[in-house]
């Protein structure tokens, strides 16, 4: 029973519907589970810091669907736990707002934006994992957080997906699944609060995305099956960014070394070359012959990052970052110096143009209109327009990437002539 049923539901407490148990925060009868005034005051102050008005019922910030998911991990939880979850979510909202300010700032270069946003993305996952451990307790053996995708490449951009996994010991597999699930749902809670509080309903209805979204959040098997798990999930861009100790006195650093070892040894060169061959047949840089709607990702960006990724895997390079891979391959004379320069410049220009598109659409949409001739008709729908110098730069990038495609095909043919790789 609540001690003070007359206190203001609107400002501090549960709505009558939630007090009666029809969704929202679960309660156990005959026990005191009210949050203390100090806890509520602290949470309310944090809500004000992120711009949430006092008229908003704090406990209503946990949506019913997420409430059920969190209960599946923690069991029925009380008001004190609900307030703690919301307070942690509001701390994450502060990181989201900082992330958004980085994306919107003109003071940062595209490269600086990726660096800062990657650091913030790692902080979001690590802090929520630490909070999950406060509810679930530590694992018996050390475990580590694994970044993949844009986060793994240290190339987080606005509206990138936060993709992460966990590597740990077999004996902790069930616990690690719960830690990973609770971490994910806690971040989703913050994401919902952020999007509902700071985005207009009309924008959400018309496809405007929250500041971050999720890709496949995978829980990886333990040490003895780590190799097969990583290879199965094709985590060529995987890297460990945070380790946690367990109750046993074992080193968590072994996971970072294991991930590096898997990516730099024991691979099948013939298989990697065949994968590159298939990739080159499927992906080819493309530029429109006339003014038209143009997808930067499908036409240029994906070819650049994934061709570099595959070449790095073939040559067993430990780095996951595109620019670091290009630099490393140039130092090893895998690619010529002028090619490395062209690719690095192309990457940064494309990142900048993608950020323009993402900011315009408020989503992970990289479609624009390329206007090649002055006076030609413009698109019927609203979209970013690249013309003049910008269109010329895109044409040059396509030319440089086409040359790189031919270079890779020639390299592949030379390898095939020395092996039994079919051409």
Structure notes:
- The chain has helices at residues 16-19, 37-49, 64-74, 79-104, 110-136, 149-152, 173-198, 201-205, 226-232, 253-264, 269-282, 296-314, 322-331, 337-361, 388-418, and strands at residues 143-148, 161-168, 213-214, 218-222, 239-244, 292-295, 367-371, 385-387.
- The strands form two sheets. Strands 1, 2, 3, 4 and 5 form a five-stranded mixed sheet that branches. A three-stranded mixed sheet has the order 6-7-8.
- It is flat, with a radius of gyration of 25 Å.
- The chain contains 15 helices and eight strands.
- The chain starts with 15 loop residues before the first helix and ends in a 5-residue tail after the last helix.
- Helix 3 packs antiparallel against helix 7 (173-198), helix 5 (110-136) crosses helix 7 and helix 11 packs antiparallel against helix 12 (296-314).
- The protein is α/β, with parallel strands linked by helices and 423 residues long.
- Helix content is 55%, strand content 9%.
- The chain folds into two domains: 16-264, no CATH class; 269-418, Four Helix Bundle (Hemerythrin (Met), subunit A).
